[in-house]
Amino acid sequence: MQTVSPTIYSQRxxxxxxxxxxxxxxxxxxxxGANMCYLAGYSEEGHERLICLAVPIDGAPTLLVPAINRxxxxxxxxxxxxxxxxxxxxGWRAVLEELIANGHLAGETIAVDDDMPARFVVPxxxxxxxxxxxxxxxxxxxxxxxxxAAEIAxxxxxxxxxxxxxxAGRMVCxxxxxxxxxxxxxxxxxxxxxxxxxxxxxxxxxxxxxLPHHMPGDTTVSEGDIVLFDIGALIDDYRGDIxxxxxxxxxxxxxxxxxxxxxxxxxxxxxxxxxxxATGADVDAAARSIIAVAGYGEQFIHRxxxxxxxxxxxxxxxxxxxxxxxxxxxxFSIEPGIYLPGxxxxxxxxxxxxxxxxxxxxxxxxxxxxxxxxxx
Length: 376
Ligand code: ZN
Ligand code: ZN
Description:
Elements: H1 6-23, E1 25-30, H2 34-40, E2 52-56, E3 62-66, H3 70-74, E4 82-86, H4 93-104, E5 109-112, H5 118-127, E6 132-135, H6 137-144, H7 149-171, H8 179-192, E7 196-197, E8 202-205, E9 226-231, E10 233-235, E11 238-239, E12 242-247, H9 253-273, H10 280-293, E13 305-307, E14 314-318, E15 331-334, E16 337-340, E17 344-347, E18 350-355, E19 358-361, E20 371-372
Parallel strand pairs: 1-5, 3-4, 5-6, 12-20
Antiparallel strand pairs: 1-2, 2-3, 7-10, 8-9, 9-12, 10-11, 13-14, 15-18, 16-17, 18-19
Helix pairs in contact: 7-8, 9-10
The chain binds zinc ion (2 copies).
One zinc ion binds at residues 230, 241, 243, 349.
């Protein structure tokens, strides 16, 4: 866990309560994961056992955990003192019933974490008869999408470790190496830096690069291939995410041309993000129009970017349906791509952060032209 002062957690809880009041929510039940980490400075997977942070609009928050998680929960960095423990013998239902009965349901809605499993949500609905169940994600997403200084520092660190691992992958990217060999070198570099992969490292050779979420396999690098890397480090709860494409030897003329189109789409999106008042939809449109004009509009099959932070994908999205102006502290990817099934694909991705005086990339500049990995 990252070192964050307890004051920051209490500010976050206050902002959540304000959002709950605005939305008529009387109690938020938060599941292990990014939201719990953000609010409590604690998160452990409970799997089939309920671990839950209960935030009422009035009164102190409560951590509800099984006995085996008592110590971890008690050490939460937010200083939440009310840790209620349930046992495997007795189950969690009675403890949650007591929590709900203790006046926490002054309003009409309980918000449950978007990631809470149905095995908990359905019984919660039975306990809270007459209350509406809503999703808590929309209350937290606007808070989490504005990063503070400590979060930005953590994101920078994740970006640096990601770049170092990319170099480690490039070093072993040569004819005869398999995608799995290259991914193993990347993952070893993450571990050497005290990080873990944020998601399964993507190394895609040749036609596999036309599959945006290809998993590394036994495909071997050959002379003339292009290779796509999409990797990210996870360190201190925050994440990196970068995509680069290289050639091994001489690429085809079309690969060179497609690379340059995607590069121009990236720069157009970045420049648009830098303009005051730009929305996620504007950023998406800037990239999409460059690719469409070049005749590859049908081959750009995803949004231009996603927010990044405690989760690998969070808000704000750079997509046609996001009409919110970007705000200082937003952190997101810009990653246009063109995918030609059976041939190759190109995606280029850097992480952008919005500051008061413009937009900054957390990663090194993307090369304007397709580079031979042997020449780096
Ligand atoms: Zn990525
Ligand atoms: Zn991404």
